[in-house]
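Data deposition worksheet. Section B asks for the primary sequence of the deposited chain exactly as it was used as input, without tags or linkers unless they were present during the calculation. Section C holds the resulting structure in token form. Section D is free text for depositor observations; keep each observation to a single sentence. Incomplete worksheets are returned to the depositor.
Section A, Depositor: J.P.
Section B:
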Amino acid sequence: MKFFDELSHFSPNRLFVSMVLGVIAGISYAMLIPIVTNSLQQPHNLSYQEEGSKAQFWGVQVDNENMALLFFLAIVCILICQTVSQVMLALISSDVTRNLRIEIYKKVLRAKMSSTEQVGSSRLMASLTSDVQTIVGGAKAVPDIIVSLFTLLGMLIFLLYLQVEVFVFVIQCIFLGVILYQVPMFFGNKAFFKSRKHVDNLHDGIRSLSSGIKELKLNKNKKDNFVETELLENEDLIIENQKLGLTIITAALNFGNMIALFVLGIVAFVFVNYHQIDQQTLIAVFMVLLYVTGPIGSILNGLPSLMMANISYQKMQTLLVELEDEGYHDKVSEVPAWSTFSLTGVLYNYDSGDNDRQFSVGPVDLTFKKGEVTYIVGGNGSGKSTLSKLITLHYQPAGGQVLFDSVPVDVGNANSYRQMISAIYSDFHLFETVLDSYAQGEELQLLVNDYLVKLDLADKVTFSNGRFSTLKLSDGQRKRLALLNAYLEDKDMYLFDEWAADQDPEFREIFYTQLLTDLKSRGKLVIVITHDDQYFDQADRLIRMDKGKVVSESTYKLENVG
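Section C:
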């Protein structure tokens, strides 16, 4: 099991101790039957009237006190060892849960933006929730399987001591049973794997249900088709494969549980006719065969959990491989002061898998200056958003260079230069807490309160202990709150992607004529993606894009004169 490697890699010493304790518990379980049969074979004193003929503990007479003591010591050993083994592995599982999630967090933060977008939030959520918990569930089954495995092993050794011929027959039956058991388990595993694949699709549907509820309510046909194809179809496929897998696995488990009883029947009604076995040995053999049904059942019942854990682990590992590392150094260091930002021959390709429909942006040659406001305009699909992510260093160009003054951006300094940039995208995320600010403490409180008033949010939102009171605002108000956060970061470069699209006319005018002018006066480099042609005259420069290319670059006045 590949997921078991994760446990051993994370905490090998604790895992080893847990397994050793499980082995000890299993051996102690296996000792119980030999102790009992040995005690029963010894002569018993039936005269309860003779004083001193039997040992007494708290007024209770105990026969074969040495065997009785050994029996109860074995029980205590089982209790302690099995409990400690289970608790230790449960604690390891909890740590592994946290470790796996942290690994995904870090992998996402280090991944290329393009691969993160391709994977999607639905698959990430499925791995962080259901997959991790399934892996932990599989890990928790390990102690019981170990105990049962060594109980079975001990019983088989005792059976070998009792009767070699019966032992050989039982081993043959177990070997045949294991082979036959693998066939339904293979098909059950395939069914569970198919079910897990459709979980990702269902998460996509649930996300779309949440974000697209307004559109669905306005169109019954769209709603019905969406529910049928994106939700119910995936639900049916998940349940259908789960039911198939559970049916197959349940039948296989019951078959496995019957192996020991089947062997018992063969020994009782057939085997004794061909081999000489005395009555005491035969009774001991029957006790062993009855006793091993429990361990066999425990092993078989634990295997589906291990199987599902392995499927989830493989899905998670596939996800981690798809999150391709961008290769940038994590360390952030101080960068030289700069005044210009340039794209020189920058090219970016979207790999769609179809060369005839591949979309690319560039090559782009642009230079931006601090203290300058630049508008980037163009129709839908012209490449504006892709260009914005190249500018903010989220996308890595396939060709060309990105420079701050004459310093090219590379894997060593990209993260450092990112710290110079603040952006509000059209699909921005608003955090409830202020995570970064040049002001702290009381100064931050006063500054935020002042901005809340200027942005007409003071009657909707309050700020206390570094946290906003609510994010349940209109789209325009949320963007203003995002703008407040951007102001607090006080970066050198600001990029706004259709920021004014959700604002009322009053705030739209304030944004273009006052807020951008304020950032310009503070020496910031400001880039605005917009369709608001009535405010083009506020730009120092206007850049038009079409089909991934820069088709014109000029000041607004020069463009009108031409």
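Section D:
The longest strand covers residues 340-350.
The mean pLDDT is 80.
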